[in-house]
Amino acid sequence: MKTGFLILIGIVFVVTIIFGIIIWKHSIKFEKKALILKQRKEAYIKELEQQQAKIEALGGEKKMNDAPVDGTNMAEEKLEK
User: Fold this and answer.
1) How far is CA 8 from CA 14, 15, 16, 19, 23, in A?
2) What is the pLDDT of residues 2-18, one digit of tens each?
3) SS3 at position 52
4) How far apart are CA 70 and CA 68, in angstroms?
5) For residue 61, what are the contacts with CB-CB under 8 A and spacing of at least 6?
6) What is the dihedral of CA 45, 49, 52, 58, to 10 degrees?
């Protein structure tokens, strides 16, 4: 009985170590993918900022309140309510 219990403890210990190694390897893969996606996101944001600066340099962006469809100013309507 005593040796069987020690064998059970040893098996549980080995299985725990194996699962720990598997989880560790998957976390490394996840970190690499997350880093690649973060760099891709930063590059995309930088590209959008460059495009926005280019638009502003060419004459600014069109504003929605400059020419409303129905001829009224939406901001003034919100203030009146």
Assistant:
1) 10, 11, 12, 16, 22
2) 999 999 999 999 999 99
3) helix
4) 6
5) 55
6) -140
